[in-house]
Design a protein that fits this description.
The protein is an alpha+beta fold. It has helices at 2-18, 23-26, 29-39, 57-78, 82-87, 120-129, 135-139, 143-147, 171-180, and strands spanning 19-21, 44-49, 54-56, 94-103, 106-113, 184-190, 194-202. Strand 4 (94-103) and strand 5 (106-113) form a beta hairpin.
Length: 218
Amino acid sequence: DQLTQTISNLQETSMELRMVPIKQVFDRFPRMVRDISRSRGKKIHLQIEGEQTELDRSIINRLSDPLVHLIRNAIDHGIEVESEREARGKKPEGRILLRAHHEGNHIIVSVEDDGEGMDPEKIKEAAIEKGIISEEAASRLSEQEALNLIFAGGFSTSTEITDISGRGVGMDVVKTNIEKIGGTVELKTRTGKGTTFIIKIPLTLAIVSALIVAAGGE
């Protein structure tokens, strides 16, 4: 019992040493959004929530690049220019919500925009054109499966895929980087309303319980 208590205390201490607020990553984005939106001639407001949410230091360092990519894509291709937004009855200023929160032993980080969203049919068309999928296979896909084609390698070969909001650019790399830290990335979108990318990652690599068995030298 004493040994168990000592090990538990040691584990808690090591976890506390490894945990840092996600604010370290989030702090770089307000200026980035301001600079890119200005260069694109768009008005965009970045809203940040949950920046004190703590995460394993090793994961924090590898989360930055995927988030940069998602936010850059939201500004470049997701959010429309003022005239288009007003024609759709939206506020002229676009909005990006960057949010982090706990959910069990995971951290959920989401990037949500109120832009034009994605059309699964146009994504299928682009994937067929690039030879990622055959017409026959594409016809059998559900709406969500069609949207997930943006994560396919090779979907990002074009400089800009403006007809489908350009979201395919580098999304295979984003997915790979998230999976390397044991996470998953999910996409939700509504045409004309906006898009949300939901990243689910382990709270820390230090709390994974493991049972190791040796048998026959393996």
